## 1
Amino acid sequence: MSKAFRFWGLAPAWALMILTLIVPILIVAGVSVAERGAYGGFDWAFDLTSYRQILFTEGWTDALEFDPKYLWIIARTMLYALTTTVICVALALPVSYFIAQQSARVKIILIYLVTLPFWVSMIVRVYAWLIILGNDGILERVYRLFGGADVSGFLFTSGAMITGMVYSYIPLMVLPVYASVEKIDPALIEASHDLYGSRWVTLRRVILPLTAPGLMAGSILVFVPCLGTVLEPMLLGGGKQLMMGTLIQTQFGGARNWPFGAAIAMVLLAFVVLVLLINARRMPRQSEIGL
Amino acid sequence: MTRYPMTRHHDIRSYPGLGPLSLVFFLWLYLPIVVVVIYSFNDNRLVSVWGGFSGKWYLVALENKALMSALEISLKVAVISTTCATLIALLAAMVLTRAPNLKFRRVSETMVNLPLLLPEIVLAVAVLILFSQLGLTNGLVKLVLAHTAFCTPFAFLPIRARLQGMSLDFEEAARDLYAPPLTAFRRVTLPMILPGVFAGAMTAFVMSMDDFITSNLLNSGGATTLPVYIFSLIRQGTTPELNAISTLLILASLILATLVLILNARAMRRG
Amino acid sequence: MSRPSAIEVVNVSKKFGDYTALDHVDFKILQNEFFTLLGPSGCGKTTLLRMIAGFETPSAGTLLLKGKAIAQMPAHKRRVNTVFQNYALFPHMTLSQNIAFGLENLGWDKARIRERVGRMLEMVHMEDFAARKPDQLSGGQRQRIALARALASEPEVLLLDEPLSALDLKLRQAMRNELRALQRDTGITFVFVTHDQEEALDMSDRIAVMGHGRVQQIGTPIEIYEDPKTRFVADFIGDTNFLEGEVIASDGSTATIRTALGTDVTTTCENVSGPGPATLSIRPEKIGVGEQAEGLILTSTVLSRNYLGGFTHYTVRVGEIDLRLSRRNAQSHQDAFDIGDAVRIGFRDSNARILGQ
């Protein structure tokens, strides 16, 4: 392979990513320490107000008062992302084991069925839950049909948001977990039984440890996009419960506080990079995507 | 993996309750989709009150001019970005899998996959600020640039997988049989990795068509994409027309996903 | 040897990082010969083959193809073709398209290509398969098409990279004869790489035994087997006994070695310059036992016996030394020796070989 091709083959990819990712992110970092513009936007002047704003508000007397409002949003984001990841793990494990036990043909079909919803437009998937959970929606009707009290208000709860997030990202958990389960040599499980291991001992001491790489990969794939998710909190949370994604979005939309939005984006980015670094440390060989 | 059909029924790996649990899982996975499809044929204006079977909402949807122009923008953006992303990914994958002792291999791979690693909202904010600094106002150009960037890894991964799965012997055989590099690529490498290229391009296309976060933030200059338009409709309240639009989108996704599945299955059988 | 050389390997070395794959390799392959590179895996034989094909470049030294330097020439410009270990038939092309591929790249006109493809299919008895795809063929058929594809352009040299290793045993035997016949009929120089000594001995005009990145010995199959020059060659080709000893006399053409067996062995040699330690090699089938014993006669005790049908292998002890020997079972129900029996063994000392280090 010629030297020229080595260069020109990679140059477009590098150029694209530098132009649309690296440079813009550096600009965001810059904007996060810039001054808020008088009419939206920003002015290039060094100013840490945006970061201060995450922790404090200016009171009546111009004195800074500690205000956990935004810390709550960050904490909520973490909590919801974590909850979503844990639920996804709990669902993906049994489903992956079940799929792995089927014949080759059924396996392909089931994996196809797991992947298919992921191909359906994200907005359509979230919208579908709006119909199910909505006021006077299907869930409420079914509930009433079975003699439940006249309830309402499934929508715009943390439950609705987390349901939507689990639904959105579950294929990203099932696929790597299944790949790990599928790779387990049946002889290892037979060996465990042969050495007097019960089913549950085998599950705990042989199958689960061998599934760990898939679980780890899946957790990253679910956790990271959950941190920045936008649609579920906006539609299923009704905008009442902000998450970091929606907070950032608001700053560039209605609130028009770009420096503050940029600061939150940097905080989010920091969390993600931290997660990725920890992961890269843990299994330098297995991280599929590099880094 | 060898499996003995005789032992299927008392497979020592089967744990009680897996079957029913998985069944519930798959029902849950398809419940929302089925609900949308069923209610798209609801005659009643109220979404959740069944008023008889009707296909009229599809007509309403198809006559919606704003919807059609959003679809047109989405298709334009998706086609252009998919083409660019696939070409860029193909070039990069060739170098990354075929050049021996390549310097910066790892960092280059990370670079190509970067959009997958970072949350989309951060990337969306980043390009928004960049374009405002550059004074770029053409909505279509902005969307194409941003979409090309985040579609590239989706195109890259299947192409790279296919190239890695292909024995180097074939390219050596081509060179051995007097094929200059470009001929070897055109007549041997490309035909053999074509399923991967198609799968990559199709994934990239779907990702571009589906994108909401970036397109919503960049929404200006008359470039409203389909998901952004649908979002604005949802904001106005759930309607049977929305169900009809969603059903059409589900149908399109189903066709594309099946195509990719068939391509992958064929690729696996051959490899 | 007055025949012109097809390939000259001139002082070639190849390093992969710190690892030396080829270490100052220097020899000639003559035109129209069936030349085999034989050695254990990792000996550098495949690297050398890939270098001739143009897939590797030497770190030092050069390669000549019919006298022209080719070390830096790209693979697609060399009139050298390869039969790959797994054949590397293009799966998306029919067999005809596979065979035509090289000819198209050489710019032949269509009619000539069609004629040649037909002739090649005929040569390998696959005329009826022209429109098939490679995945519809058996291993042996793939092998034939790979040969046809590589020979179609009448290359100066045909390289074969362990082409028989993917076939089952019976087919392998048949393909050996076919390959040999093909080489004779076409008159093309064949360079064959294998780790299978029997294949090498059976098919080759000359063999280069490679080990540790070097050529250990080059010669005809008989020379390689009967007159191994180094311990490596004697050990790698066939089975042998090593006897350590001391040179007590030499006159330039013969030398006498005092061995630990308690006897002196006198045999021809070229590489003994004076007194000092020496190693003798004696093949098991050259040692007679019982009524087959002749030459130097020794008494021994049987330690183990392995009955193999045509032959019985024994390990016997003479003093402190264990020897392996092979007895041809010339008579049915021939008497066998039991473990612990005292038996007479013997060999002619001219059958022993003195090894270089």
## 2
Amino acid sequence: MQLFERQNIAYTYVTRDWSQNLHQQLNGLGVSDRHLLNMFDYYQQMVDVQPNKTFLADLDFGIKNLRFVDEQNEARFIVQRNDERLVARVNYQKDDQHVTSVERFDSAGNLYAIDFYNQRGFKSMTQWYTIDHQLRSEVWYTPEGRDVLHATYRQSGPTEVEALGWLLTDPDGHIYQFATLTALFEHFINAINELYPEFNTLILDSVTSADEAFTRLRKPAYTVLDIHSMHVTDTGQPATALLNEHYEYALLNVAHFSNVVTTTSKQTADIVARFPDVQAATTIPAGYVTPERQQQPPVKMNKREFGKIVAIANISPNSNLSDLLHVIKQVHNQIQSVTLDIYSYADYTNNYAEEIKIRQAIIDLALEQVVQLKGYVEDLQPALENAQILGITAHQACFDLGLLEGLTNGVVPVAYAVDYGPKALITDDQNGCLIEPGAIDAMANQIVYLLKHQRILQQFSNNAYATPAAFDEANVWHAWANLLAHAKEVHQA
Amino acid sequence: MIYSVGENMYAFNSGIEFAQVQRTKAFNAANMPAKIITRQYNRYLARNAAWMGLQPDEYLNMYDYFQKVTDFEPFAQNVRTLAAIPRGTYHVRYTDNNEAHITENGQVLATVHLLPDKADCVGDIEYFNNLGDTMMTAYYDWRGFRSMVETYHPDGLVASQTYYDPAGAQVLAVTWMPENGESQATSWQLLNYHGQNYTFDSENQLFTFFLNELNDALASTFIVDRPHLATSVLGIDTPKRTIAYIHDSHLQQAATGNAYFVKGSYQPVLQPRGREFNLVAVATAQQAAQIKAQFPACVVRQVPTIYTQVVDDNTVTELQKILYVGRLAPDKNILGLLKVAAALKTHYPTIQLVLKGYFASSEYEAQILAEIQALQLDDNVTLVPYSVDDNGIYADASVFLSTSLAEGLGINMLTSLAHGVPVACYGIAYTQDNLIIDGANGICSDECNPQALAQKIITTFENPLTVMNLKVQAKQTAQQYQAEQLVTAWQQVLH
């Protein structure tokens, strides 16, 4: 998206889910409001609304002689009648006390509704509750207060609710009913495809959100299946391995897509080989490096912390970080000053089972002074300009943005030689080292060798700095431009 | 403005609604601007009011007022042209005259119920969720616009009612919460009313607010005809005048003994907390005197309830057909009518009893039907459904029969008198020696038992001259209840 933004092309970033802070979040990711089209915004008729804030004084409770108590510790105002009956709790953001939500109480003291105020200064959604605090429905409003979207829920578990149906009033006054959010999203995709009169190019990124919709659009479009991750469960057996559940439906219906995009040429080839119905396939790297970024002066190895190894990987079974810990243990046995910093999120699956396992392994291997879990960091550049080696022990990986980021900052990757990312981005003994998957001893030896031969490490680092040329902005944009040109050809054919 | 404050205009109305309509029409004819106010939400109100002969500017409903539809021009919202149904996406199947189904892939998504008396017009739409339960109902007003939308708690009880103006803006939101297995309205929010929200705890609070809004626009006289609305009317801050009209007996006999006390329903009228009515009006001097004796501070006046028009369409002097017109309700003692008929049948085997009106409940209807069989009156009793227009039914009636044990006046009896049909009734307070004088315009039995009344009827009809005399006097009584007298009496109390 940032690339499209920078190239200033007529693109629209379409998102499905409602979020109170949607625009702030996506603006932070570099998506401007004029290119952002959220389904809820669209039906709430608030695509073009200026940001604004709601304050306590803007709220109208419809009751005179109210008393207000500021509970700063809870970041809320308590609103009471003269007789102390609770009218509302007004939750605010601490910095300037602008209103985020209002919990409303009826004459009998029941919490019956919570209004959510968005960053445009009006009530966007209200949650309606039962007498025993179960969410029974959500209603979304236009800026004028028209209720345009209703969802009904029932309690399906101690903490879960299940949507039982959606009711949409569109801007023409038609009332549509949907069993699921996915069905509503399909309606929306068709609506916006028909809204823009030209032949549209629709790129499906979050695949299962709309893969069914893309295979049966009411109006033809150039449809792109954008595969960001591994499409098989074992990249070593691409012709026979089970399909990744997220791509299974789309790939089995791949004839309905105009183009399949993956991030590496090997993955593209694997898909074309396995699915003869593929109409067209294109390789476009998932990341790119801007010219400004490439022009930054390199940091020499002797300016970096000796023995600093980093990993940029989610703490999940897929990242196989326990292998990396064993590698580091062996390296540490020979070079005491080696350290490993692991960046990125921990996977919450099974109540953070993998993080618990990794933390236990650190203790078992007595690496408490060596390994640190750094969590997610917004700007990795300082850490990467201080590191010498990037360790990757995943048994399979897709285009790895962390790896590209490491190369861009001259960090030398040492990785298992797996499809797709590591083998696509690393040339063994040139800009890094590829190790046979599972060969912990070999990887440890390689890292020890590199640390002990800083001149070679420096040479690899120089090559690492040079690698991203293939992934510079112009090249990646060129790949997209080709795809868009193909879309036009298909339409005219 | 003179407002007559009531609850509703029903499909089936009682004498109180007829009295309000007559009073309002008489006032307007006499250049005394008047309207009926109704409180309850009723999407058939415009139809019912038209049935009652009311013009749109002769009544004002609270919900209509806030929904900005007091002068909405009715149109026929045909289901075939309803814009809310996306016909390119769904199928609409017109099942029968009562409903249509909105379907997708054969599944019913919503049911459109059609208006009972307006062919193919939308009455309401029930939208179903994935479980087949109703997740929302959109109610359409008889005049054609979507008026109110209801949503539900998971157990199916009403959770919210939202009222709209015809442009689709929310104007009133009512929240419902369960209490003892029933939904209770716990919050009433008037939205963006002249730019502001107003929150109320009850419909009565909202009603008081509404009455004050009317009175702020024009200081007015408010005549309340339903005692449970008295408190709201007394909540008007600076009315020109407040009047309570008592339409029936304000007294109730104690469960044991002969003592009488004020009915609970009339306590807000006669013993209000705080403000009092400027005037309490009743139909008879007798009731006025009783109230005055018990509540010396109360300003009480006799003012006519209703007027009638004499119709020369009846010359019957033989006992053939007994008529009752009115609510078929326990307080009207319909069982008593049957017993009188049964007693008459021993002398007049072919005697006919015609009951015209609507039953108060289906249970009561079943009870009456069973009693007709038990008394072997199947061939003697005819039930005629309610209609506004009663003309014609009096033409062949021998006598009008009432066995009601309490009446404020007896509006149905007055109508009968106007046709020259004498009234036979029990000699109860406010009727005997007021509207009905035994031996003059009717037959009153001091004993409130069917045999006694039947015997008096038999005796009376033994002499056609007596009956003819009763008929003449009946019309003379009716002559005293003319619109002019009603207006004059009101003018005296309104100054």
## 3
Amino acid sequence: MKKHYIPSRLFTLLVYIFLYAPIVLLIIFSFNATKSNRVWGGFSTQWYAELFHNARLLGALRTTIILSVLAAVIATLLGTAAAIGFYSMRRRSRSVFLAVNNIPLTNADIITGVSMMLLFVFAIGAFNSSFLSDLLGVRWKTGFGTLLIAHITFNAPYVILSVMPKLRQLDPNIYEAAQDLGASGFLAFRKVILPEIMPGVLNGLIIAFTMSIDDFVISYFTKGSGVTTLAVEIYTMVKKPVTPEINALSTLMFLVVFALLLTVNIRQARQETASARRKAKLNPGR
Amino acid sequence: MSKELIRLSDCFMKFDDDVILDHINLYINDKEFLTLLGPSGCGKTTTLRIIGGFQKPTSGDVYFDGVRINDVPPHKRKVNTVFQKYALFTHMNIFENVAFGLRVNKVPDPKDPKRMIKVPESEIKERVEEALALVNLAGYGKRSVNSLSGGQQQRVAIARAIVNRPQVLLLDEPLGALDLKLRKDMQIELKRIQQQVGITFIYVTHDQEEALTMSDTIVVMNEGKIQQIGTPEDIYNEPKNAFVADFIGESNIIDGIMHEDYVVGMYGRKFKCLDKGFAPNEPVDVVIRPEDIDIVPEAEGQLTGTVTEVTFKGIHYDIIVDFKGFKWLIQTTDYSPVGAKIGVKIDPDGFHIMKKSQYSGTFGDYSSYSSEYDELNEDRLEDEEVGDEE
């Protein structure tokens, strides 16, 4: 065993270097005093300063934050409700619904993006040529609305996936126990079920939020012409000569997403040890 | 003891095409310790859930104190439940678990009885502590659910259920997850709590010994039907059919003929017994408990047979004796070696005569004595595996 120890260590190291070298490089050059991405010209935070004076970028940042928060919150509400619905189904239909839920997760973003664009074009066309549009005097077009719908749609399955295990861990009689003690159905849900699954709900919320911030492909196809998100804005900036502002921006985005994912992972690890401890208590000697 | 509190009237329950309860009629008295006893799938838990309000019978009525409660939801019933896996709220500490029932319920304002108010905090504190003291967990209020052992969690579940001062406590195999020693202690403890609080306990179990130890009344169920209702002594000494005789304790069940009152025939011989009231020459099932059989020298025996198996059990030996192809179990402190020819003597009160039933011939032969024990053990293992999976 000892023979393989050093090579395996080396291999792991290599994997991490390949994974993180680009990001480290990006962070380093975001503090570069010159415009070059090859030559180090001394430490400077000027690109960060310039970033916060770039109106287009700041506008995209605002859109992204509003969009991510709204999409994450709505997807969490929908996803939690859906997970509870799945949980109360019989085993057979539950597994069918969960399988369907998993398809969008494995589906390529580009396909989700293009198909959503097609759907929006179709729906908007249908709406605008209907009497409802004339009646209300409203013309619907792609923009923040379509973007939000798209983000909610691809976020919801992640929420479901994160709430489901918490529901499965529940004592099968816990809802009945609350009712038995005098709580009506809704009170039992609010006072017992919701707090018990809350860790899963919060994890789902954070995951959904990071997915939204991160997304480029689906946003690109569904945003229309009026609005832009941070990821899309970076893409358009890269097409022109690259300025190190992008390095600064990407560094900030990386740090936010990294911090959120770290929170999720730490929370999950804590919950696992807690539930393992509880299991050990319930089945002594096993 | 005498006042009737709950009545199930002709309760029938179907799930898909399976009949779960087959026209159950049952009444339960105030302050009674009643046990629903039977193998898994016999309908005992369903009966309990119907009383708790978690399931509705397909047809038939449930009465509480003379009022029909079929459509009363669980949170409005004056019964509380201790669930099999305790169903404690892990996001609350012990105090809050027990206080839950007091916090979600409103009581009439003492100053203005028309107004409903929350239970005052001082009263909650007092009653929670009283309940925790009753289950010997005084001072545990601040602890988390996860820091307690299985037995302690069980006690919290009981405290939580009685804090609302229900008229009836429903217990669904509450000791199933505990080990043997703890289970025996909790049996005595539960009986003490029931007498101290003075309310009706309806207890579900598949453990016949547990039922005999604790109950005032036992209801033996199988295949959705009530097989027999009676005191533990009645059920043990006067089983109604072969199923009850076999399920409660050990029984040799032999085909016989009731020649006339007080005379039963089996193996072509006549024996004196204490039973009467059967038609002349009616075919019957004869139950003889293994401990009611005396082994005597061959010449003195009412019947003679050959010992085929001897197992040492501590207090006694389990001896399997072959009587003309039908194997009996005899429990005795006297040792007889395998292969010995022995005689047996049974006093008239050792016979118990039952009418023929659908269960005749299915139980009571000990030909497969050792494998029967193996099966029991396997069942237990399977139960545990299922428990782990959840």
